[in-house]
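How a chain folds remains the central question behind the approach discussed here. The record that follows shows the chain in one-letter code together with its fold in token form:
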Amino acid sequence: MTLIKELQINIAMSNYNQRSGSYSANYDYIFLDNLNSSSHSSLFRSDLKNLKIKTWDGATCQVLYIPKYGSQPAAILARIPASKISQTTKLILEVHDTTFSSTLSTGGEVLMFDANSDTYSQFFMNYSGLSINNDSTDGGKYLRARFVPNMDGSAPSSLITTFASGNSLSNGRVTVARFKYINGNVAVNDNATYFGTTIGSYMMQSDFNLTMYQQDLKETSLTPGNDDKPYCMFTGTTTLVMASSWDAYSSGSDSEGDWKQYHLHGRVGTGTSTSADYLEGFDRNNPSKIYQQEYAEIEISPTWYATTEFEEFNYFDLKWLLIFPSPLFAVNGIPTITVTEKEKIKTGIRLYKGAHEYPKAYKGSTLLWDADDEDMENTGLYIPDKIINKNWDWVF
């Protein structure tokens, strides 16, 4: 295994807020979907599996390699220690001449349904509108979810998970769904119950003519914030990225139990790269007393008709669904992620005897070396290559 090049991933938050004491997760997860758009992409395999991600002090981050699909590029989900996250987080991106396998497993904090290999009945409430179909794009499978009206409420009419409950509200939630096909009228609730008693970040896409004035409705909206765009963001083969966070600013107890009041932040977009289209809503001081302590399920719902002729009910085709906790994408705003050359760091050592530091070395009155000597030229003291060629970052 040969290291070809070391690059640098820069993650800058546009409106960064230091995570509050309510956040308990030890890690943030970063969904990197724009690496292949960097100027260094010629060094990367098309599946990104020759890349490793490390923290700035050299600790290897667990990663999940996500394959490309159709026009959608490969991506990486990386797990970063929360202590390494700041307003201007920097990571090391290593390019190697070998192929790596994913080291981040799913089924714990990171939940994933993959239509190519998983049985949908293990992950979703079953209803007559679900079916697994063969996928000519990659030789695998996809899950079709079709809107099926059910007047008596005895069965769901949308895709709703059965395995995503239980994560703390305070840790934030990110939902990434990659579609083979999505169009028309779709709703997404990242904190759903079967009868819709709980609302988290809620997106609705409307593309139909259903008014008394025959007015076309083409918009995508997001709550909280009631933000909307006068066109539909998700059509064709698209990846949906939806994030929400609940940052508690007050708490108490009453006869109904323990409650909290939250700053609510939601965002939905076509990806996490700087060119991704998105909507963002923020409710600073929601006065509602929330007795719920954990997220509920993920719901993705095809609604109404597939055409304006009202001949066929709407549907979407799902390739995979990824769910993970990460306040980085939610309460901390929208990250701008770039790949650059690795910054050069001063090279040197510091000499200690016990707790006392000797930053300079003399022979008589002659200065032999200085810990602040950036280029470490020959000053009389010969330092082995195994020391001088390391980026010690001013520690020894």
